[in-house]
Amino acid sequence: GKSTVTTLLTRYLARSYPDSNFGVLDIDICGPSQPRLMGALGENVHQSGSGWSPVGIDDNVCLMSIGFLLGSVDDAIIWRGPKKNGMIRQFLSEVDWGNLDLLLLDTPPGTSDEHLSVVSYLKDDSAPDSVHAIIVTTPQ
């Protein structure tokens, strides 16, 4: 569903606008699927002086997901709202996204705290500077 839409939309935009830079943020903390869909299973996120470096997918696409921080794709994360929201804020404020033109966010099913929090965070100074965003979600 929505994760596939996020992946296909990102790939379409990246091909259609090769001079633009796109980021994908997988905020489905309990079920991250973007590393698998983007062909990046087994990749690692690295810490640099300017924050976490997202995984490069193509020349103009990078990806950040908690899936890169887990030991195994089978590891389960069972977090409540505040901890999930803290991770989302960290992804928005501590990832070195570089110069993005568009950030696509793959969300968990339904409408939850994560959705409300990410909209709030994108409005304040946590978001990458002057980035436009598309939040891919489904109704509850």
From TrEMBL:
UniProt-listed InterPro entries: Mrp/NBP35_ATP-bd (IPR019591), P-loop_NTPase (IPR027417), YlxH/NBP35 (IPR033756)
Alphabetized GO MF terms: 4 iron, 4 sulfur cluster binding; ATP binding; ATP-dependent FeS chaperone activity; metal ion binding
Gene Ontology terms describing biological process: iron-sulfur cluster assembly
Keywords: 4Fe-4S, ATP-binding, Iron, Iron-sulfur, Metal-binding, Nucleotide-binding
Gene3D superfamilies: P-loop containing nucleotide triphosphate hydrolases (3.40.50.300)
Xref: Pfam families: ParA
Any one cellular-component term (Gene Ontology): cytosol
Descriptive protein name: GA14715
Protein species of origin: Drosophila pseudoobscura
Organism lineage string: Eukaryota, Metazoa, Ecdysozoa, Arthropoda, Hexapoda
Gene it is expressed from: GA14715
